[in-house]
Every structure is written in structure tokens, then in C-alpha cells.
Design a protein that fits this description.
It contains 15 helices and 14 strands. With about 450 residues, it is of the alpha/beta class.
Length: about 450
């Protein structure tokens, strides 16, 4: 994205620009200083969450709507529960959207005019980050938040540029890294060629990184970003919504049900789940996610998976639900004997947490954040990615032993309650915010 200015950003936060200068971020050099707002210790905060493509209002299961949408929505709500005022800035992709939409008390979704008001694949959004950044800078010049927290690398690009002209402390959560995606997808990676270089620039330019797992910290270190600059705060789950008790979705005529839930993209490993079903008789596989049910037949990934199911001789036991409304997900999970998470790679993954909260055992690939969330031999089983036979063997072990499934499910529920509630995630995230704010305003007394 050559149109964005390339001025360096320092940890001291350049002074805010004058209002005319904000109308043209191409102006060279920082503008004259303006007084900074000093945050009070443990006072309620004004928090800006920037999530350029992943709106908390989106229907889940599409190509670009999944765990990040859930993460942003739930984190915003949990921060509001702690008394903070949260604004989520996301790109306006529909001309019928209001500029601001209340999500819940304390949380406002702000639709940013950046590019056409129409859906655009996230990998095509980089050219629109310049107007996104200009808009943020203007908004924050007039009413700066106490802290900005960008989600995904392109949100980081926009926030990096916007905060060069304000005194807003800036934290970054990547959710996924281009180096990992390129390693696993190779020529199939549709990310912009500049993604990795931008991720590094954002990591070096932000005040702090909030990573979701240990694997991400090591990937960032390999990019030259110091481990000491990174806090690890996992994703979370609402255990009052995802719980073992409650209604379960209706099941088919088979003895066992497996559930594969998530965005319907190849890296999520649904093809591995389909192939594994060949070795699991009297078992149905429900694949949840993707486009709405009425257009499922037109989705390329659905057609590919159905063809694989026909080749494997299991087409009659594979069922596609399409996009699942968020309130219906817990009942769908409770209807399954085992949840499958066989992704090729997974930056963190919220589905394993939701499954554990519902008291369901998992079989998950031993990659990324699933190494942190799923305790092998305690809440589920790890298997190598991309290999149907080990996946089928692990599932057979669990289906043959109801007591083991129950034990794993109970342990998973306890693990979620101890480590992965959104309340604890929000508390840890707030600690990162306040540490950055204190560093930005060292004269403030009484700050934590």
C-alpha cells in the first residue's frame, strides 16, 4: 500500500495534528503539541477497539466472519462490564448501516466510511486503510480515547497511522500472522504481498502486543519483535451461555454425532473430518458454518467437501447446516459426542473453548493456540494436522468409552472456568492497557 505515508512512529507518541492537517495525513512531520489527557488510576476508561473487517454485528460462519468477530464482541462486552466505555470501529460494508449502533450497554459499534459501502474480501481491504486511518485520526483528535486496541494486522496499519497524529496509546492483537499463513498455504495464500512487512512495522511501532498464545510470541520473536514487548492474554468464552446443561439440537438416526464448527475455509480442516468419517461407522458428521443454508449449493468449499464425501463413501452421513445463528451454537454443541478441530493451523481458536464450556471432549490438531487451550489427555486429544487416520483413531477411542468422554468433558468445563472466562480475559487485557498508559504518562501518580 504505497499511498500510506511512511513516517516513523516513536514510543513517545507524536503530538496531535491540527484539525486541517488531519484532513490530509500526507503532511510531513508531526504537528504542534496539544495537551495530553492523563489517565486516572483505575478510573473508567474510554477504549477504542479497531476491527476493520470483523464486525461484532456480523453473522458468523462466512469466509471472513468467525472467531475474531466473537472475540471483539465479547471482549468489548466484558470491558463494559468492568465499567469502561467501549467503541468498536469497523468498516461500513452496507449503505443501510447507521454510523453508530449500540451493541449493548457500554458498547457502541462505529461504522467507518472506508471504501465502498459493500462487502469486500478482507484480503482486498488494504488500499482502504488510508481513509480508515484518516477517519480515526479525525475522530480521535476531536475526542481521543484513553487507549486504542487494534485487532488484525490491517486494523493495526490504520491504527498505527492514526496514532502518529494523536497521543493515544496503541496495543495490537494480530489474531493470525502472515508468516504462519504463508508457511501453510504457500501459493494459495491470498494475503497482500506486503502483509508480513506491515505486520512487522505494526509490531515495532505499537506500544504493546497482546498475543493470544505462546506460539504467536515465538513467531513474533522470529520477526524481530522482542518477547518482552508481548503480553499473552488468551481468547475467552462465556460459560453462562456455553454450558453442559440445556437443550440439545435434534440428532440423526446414527449412534454417534461429530461436530465440525467454524468458518468454511480449507485451513479449518473440514476435509480431514470428512475423510476420517470413513473409519467411523454408525457416526454422522455435522459441518456447521459457511454461507446461509439457502445458498449452500453455490459455495465452492461446500461443493468440494461434498465431492470428497462421495469419494469416501460417506455422503449420506455428512450434513451441512450453513451459517448458524450465535444463540443456536450451544445446543448444537451439546448434541455432539465429540467436537473436531483439525485445522492446519490455528492462531488460537474459540471453538475449543466453547466445546469445553459445554462439557464436550475434543480432538484437535496440535497447532498454535490449541496447544494452549486443549489439554491433551485431560480435556481432549491432540492429533497431527492434515492426517485423517490419527483423527479417526482418536475419535474411535472416545466414542468407545462414554466414561472417558464424560471425564474429559467435566475437566474441560473446569478448565474454562479457571482460565478462559471473558471476565478474566478482560481483566488481563485492562492490565495491559493501564501498563501502556502509565508508560505514556509517567508523571501520573497512583497508576498501577
Amino acid at each position: 500500500m504505497t499511498s500510506l505515508p511512511r513516517t516513523p512512529r516513536t514510543q513517545a507518541h507524536p503530538a496531535p495534528a491540527t484539525a486541517p492537517a488531519l484532513d490530509a495525513l500526507r503532511a510531513t512531520g508531526p504537528a504542534p503539541a496539544a495537551p495530553a489527557r492523563a489517565p486516572a488510576a483505575r478510573a473508567p476508561l474510554s477504549i477504542a477497539l479497531v476491527s476493520e473487517h470483523a464486525s461484532p454485528l456480523a453473522v458468523l460462519g462466512g469466509v471472513d466472519a468467525g472467531g475474531q468477530n466473537v472475540h471483539v464482541a465479547q471482549l468489548a462486552g466484558a470491558l463494559a462490564d468492568r465499567g469502561h466505555q467501549v467503541t468498536v470501529y469497523t468498516r461500513r460494508d452496507d449503505p443501510g448501516l447507521d454510523v453508530t449502533v449500540p451493541l449493548r450497554p457500554g458498547v457502541l459499534v462505529h461504522h467507518v466510511p472506508a471504501g465502498p459501502a459493500a462487502p469486500i474480501p478482507k484480503d482486498d481491504l488494504l488500499p482502504h486503510m488510508e481513509p480508515f486511518a484518516r477517519y480515526l485520526a479525525q475522530q480521535w483528535y476531536e475526542e481521543p480515547p484513553d487507549v486504542a486496541h487494534a485487532h488484525f494486522w490491517m486494523s493495526g496499519v490504520a491504527t498505527l497511522r492514526a496514532t502518529e497524529h494523536t497521543r493515544v496509546p496503541f496495543l495490537q492483537t494480530y489474531h493470525a500472522l502472515g508468516t504462519v499463513k504463508r508457511r501453510h498455504q504457500g501459493d494459495a495464500d491470498t494475503s497482500p504481498p506486503a502483509r508480513v512487512s506491515w505486520e512487522r512495522r505494526v509490531g515495532l511501532g505499537c506500544d504493546r502486543i497482546v498475543a493470544t498464545c505462546r506460539d504467536e510470541v515465538e513467531e513474533l520473536a522470529a520477526m524481530g519483535i522482542a518477547r518482552s514487548k508481548t503480553d499473552i492474554v488468551p481468547c475467552g468464552v462465556d460459560p453462562t451461555v456455553f454450558r453442559p446443561d440445556g437443550p440439545a439440537a435434534p440428532r440423526g438416526p446414527y449412534r454417534h454425532r461429530l461436530l465440525h464448527l467454524g468458518r468454511l475455509v480449507p485451513r479449518k480442516g473440514a476435509a480431514v473430518s470428512v475423510a476420517a468419517l470413513r473409519g467411523l461407522p454408525d457416526t454422522e458428521l455435522v459441518i456447521a458454518g459457511g454461507p446461509p443454508r439457502d445458498v449452500l449449493d453455490t459455495a465452492p468449499e461446500v461443493r468440494r467437501l461434498r465431492a470428497l464425501a462421495v469419494d469416501a463413501g460417506v455422503a449420506d452421513r455428512v450434513h451441512f447446516t450453513g451459517a448458524v445463528p450465535r444463540p443456536a451454537v450451544p445446543a448444537l454443541m451439546r448434541s455432539a459426542d465429540v467436537i473436531l478441530c483439525p485445522a492446519d493451523y490455528e492462531p488460537f481458536g474459540i471453538v475449543p473453548l466453547e466445546a469445553m464450556a459445554c462439557g464436550r471432549p475434543l480432538v484437535a490438531s496440535a497447532v498454535g493456540g490449541q496447544l494452549d487451550s486443549v489439554a491433551h489427555g485431560v480435556t481432549g486429544l491432540h492429533v497431527p494436522p492434515g492426517q485423517p487416520r490419527p483423527l479417526a483413531a482418536a475419535v474411535r477411542l472416545l466414542l468407545a468409552d462414554p466414561a472417558l468422554r464424560a471425564r474429559y468433558g467435566e475437566a474441560g468445563r473446569h478448565r474454562v472456568l479457571r482460565r478462559f472466562s471473558w471476565a478474566s480475559v478482560a481483566a488481563a487485557t485492562e492490565d495491559s492497557y493501564r501498563a501502556v498508559m502509565t508508560a505514556s504518562h509517567p508523571s501520573v501518580t497512583g497508576a498501577p
